[in-house]
Amino acid sequence: MPTNVTAEYLAAEEEYHRAKTIPEKIRALEKMYATVPKHKGTEKLRLQIKRKLSELRKELEKQRQQKKSGGYSIAVKKEGAAQIVLVGLPNVGKSSLLKVLTNVDTDVADYAFTTIEPIPGMMHHRNVQIQLVEVPGLVEGAALGKGMGPQLLSVVRNADAIAIVVDLSHDPIKQLETLLTEFERAGIKVNRRRPRVEIKRTASGGIIINGVENIRGDVNEAKRMVYEERIHSAEITVKEPVTLEEFADALDESLVWKRAIIIANKGDSPGSKENYEKLVKEYEDRFKIVPVSAKRKIQLDRLKDELYELAGIIRVFTKSPGEDPAYPPVALRKGSTVMDLAERIHKDFAKNFRYARVWGKSVKFPGQRVGADHVLEDGDIVEIHAR
Ligand SMILES: Nc1nc2c(ncn2[C@@H]2O[C@H](COP(=O)(O)OP(=O)(O)OP(=O)(O)O)[C@@H](O)[C@H]2O)c(=O)[nH]1
Ligand SMILES: [Mg+2]
Description:
Layout (H helix, E strand, L loop, with lengths): L6 H12 L3 H14 L7 H25 L14 E7 L5 H8 L17 E7 L2 E7 L14 H10 L2 E7 L4 H14 L2 E3 L6 E5 L5 E4 L4 E2 L2 H10 L5 E5 L3 E2 H8 L4 E10 L6 H12 L5 E3 L8 H12 L1 E6 L11 E4 L4 H8 L1 H5 L1 E7 L8 E3 L10 E6 L1
Parallel strand pairs: 1-3, 1-4, 4-11, 5-11, 7-9, 8-10, 11-12, 13-17
Antiparallel strand pairs: 2-3, 6-9, 13-14, 15-16, 15-17
Helix pairs in contact: 1-2, 2-3, 7-8
């Protein structure tokens, strides 16, 4: 135990030892993490706290899965080229946005919890259909079990990207802090890049770490973390400089990494200008912030453009042998494969797939023959050959 910790830290630690429930333990550990001085001498301690937090998060999720009676789930089936969730505190204007961006007619009212289940709607923009899903208002403690919190956050975990909605008639910083805390508690990393550490599990051979020089810290500690994750045989490649904390994040398979923007709504209300400026000052490095008014329909075209960007759409053209590419192109998410395309066109196509020929940025030469796992790029032309 480092001797140079603060009184606040010691109080949090005592709280942790007194804590009985998992949520109480998590809250105490979060305080410990926030109050431990950040320097080399406390690195191990910080890693231990993070590890404990991660374990408790998984335990909480396990308990929830076991309790879930009757298979009740509020998952929203994905439709369109991508699914983006609209999340925020209650009453910030999520339904109002859904109404002006999609064809969905849903209830809007000036009180919290008007919406009590996720509501999907389809946004058409630049010839692409993007699914928007309003997630009922999140509150502090949602991830720790408050209300429907855990189910709501699992809808967020499943989405392709996140649009965080804040209300500019109130302090947006507080709203954002609450939401980011709940995301963190739910293992959702927003606008953080997954550290480039590749883990290939192997049947035998123990742990091999390539690129150890990229680990900014004690390599033995890194190895210990691998064993603690119950990985006994794997080839791990550290492709960029990482701290031990980043290395731990890369190993933690319970984390999800999502792209997000902030929709700053109610830009028409008194005090919104000052609140917007505060928000920009604090968060513009990490988030694209789009000020709008759902009520007065201000800046909605720009918002649609930003949501389209967020969705990470590529368009690919399909063609039959000996013919020109077909129009319109098919919209897919970045990172989609030839098989994703085949599935979108027809399930028989996917089932009877043999190979494809591709022209465009994703291949070395025109008409190159590729397999089902080939990753496509924007503007590619694809000829699928099936039985
Ligand atoms: N001034 C102003 N009010 C807005 C705007 N957008 C929504 N509102 C009002 O804010 C209140 C809440 O709007 P909703 O769209 O129901 O908000 P919500 O986030 O879906 O609320 P819950 O579903 O209860 O969490 C309503 O009274 C809306 O009229 C806006 O751009 N400007
Ligand atoms: Mg609503």
